[in-house]
Amino acid sequence: MDLALSCWQLGREMAMTRLGHGRQTFRLLKRSSLLLRIIAVVFAVLLFCEFLVYYLAIFWCNWPEVQTPAYDSEQETPEPVLRAMFLADTHLLGEVRGHWLDKLRREWQMERAFQTALWWLQPDVVFILGDVFDEGKWSSPQAWADDVKRFQRMFRHPSHVQLKVVAGNHDIGFHYQMSTYRVKRFEKVFNSERLFSWKGINFVMVNSVALEGDGCGICSEAEAELTEISRKLNCSREVGDDWDDASAFCPRVFRGHHEVPSVLLLITQLPPPFPPAGDCQARWINRLTSHQQEQRPSQCGDVQLLPASTPVLLQHYPLYRRSDADCSGEDAAPPEERTVLFTEKYDVLSREASQKLLWWLRPRLVLSGHTHSACEVLHAGGLLELSVPSFSWRNRNNPSFIMGSLTPTDHALSKCYLPREDTVLITYCGAAGLLAVLILAHVELLASPFHFGWNLLRKHKIM
Predict the structure, then answer these.
(1) Start-end of H helices in 163-279
(2) Total structural domains in the chain?
């Protein structure tokens, strides 16, 4: 009897031990399951908010179609189309006002947006319309070097994609802060190029901060550069007018040769067969020669001719306008800010500087930044100016950039919106709520939905 009792007690103890081990194993499995769920949710949310959301937004952006002239000749080649991206006001934070978390969040947003756009859209050239940095106007040499290094990492690009940058007031300071040292420091990194021509299209990149009109050294130098660019453009336009005249006068001979700037050089290099002696070619050569002797002033003799295309003007400050009252769209300034009058030489260029630029350059299109909001303005003569919104979440909730398809004679523009910051924040908040529910359910402070529904059903049956 005692032996049987002892065996029963031993068996009971063994069963209890096994049950304890089973419960412990179950708890471990339950904890592991919770941990795996948390890891899966965190990974999925990070993957979406920090990578996939940029592809989903930029996937819907397409290059606008631009009409190219068509001719009857089978040898006619269509005008080349240049694909350009225009960004503005990236405002990379510096060591003074830049909190590390703010830097991390906003700079990662710009880096991912830029790299995704490069990969998907494959532009030929990217223009940044000023205020690349936030503290360039007062940063120390070491801080400037650190900011430049971060910029080059964020906006890295393949060698076949050109990156052109225009100076803004936060890069070199407002007029009263601007110095030769800051200007040269900026130009050493981003080149001092004011005139850029590619695929027969001319871009004039203006240091609009220097257009104060008070005769300061930097201002005088900037105006002298612009008058020289104006001379080059005007001389090239004259050759372009002669070339258009040649195409109309001798269409069989001259059509299809858009890229060579000098008409006389074109004539000597045209492939045979030429028209018979005394035909339109010889008559047009005589006509051009007499026109050059009578009309061409000596100041064009030493000019390196440019494509005869009317230029595109790129600058940081917008041309003069009273306010943003006529601006509209989801990325325009808030309604309460649109009627606030702009201050000349601070918010926009002065009337005088704007008139000078239009008179010197006679552009076909103007793109600017500075306001951080979008606006389309029609100036005198139907000239379109686009104010490009900020590229950074720090300046607006819905950043964007402009996509342009340009030819020597035409252009088409469209806008590409980046992910909204509030969308990403809402996603993170939703994920945090889901994790809280999982944890509370695990520690049984919150019943699972199944148990909650079963308890309600039992209470209903009892009643």
Answers:
(1) 169-172, 180-190, 217-249, 251-254, 263-269
(2) 1
Any domain includes 456: no
Residue 263: CATH number of its domain: 3.60.21.10
- Give the tens place of pLDDT for each residue, 369-388: 999 999 999 999 999 999 99
Report percent pLDDT > 70 for the chain: 73
Q: How does DSSP assign 253-319, residue by residue?
A: HHTT--S---HHHHHHHPPSPPPPTTSHHHHHHHHHHHHHHHH--GGGTT-----SPPPEEE-SSPP
Strand order across the 201-205 sheet = 195-198, 201-205, 312-314, 365-368, 384-387, 375-378
| Structure token pair of residue 28 | 């471990």
- What distance in Å separates the CA atoms of residue 26 and residue 442, rounded to the nearest whole number? 13
Among 143, 145, 149, 150, which residue's Cα sits nearest to residue 97?
Answer: 143
Find the range with the poorest average confidence among 111-125, 126-140, 439-453: 439-453
Residue 178 near residue 222 (C-beta atoms within 8 A):
no
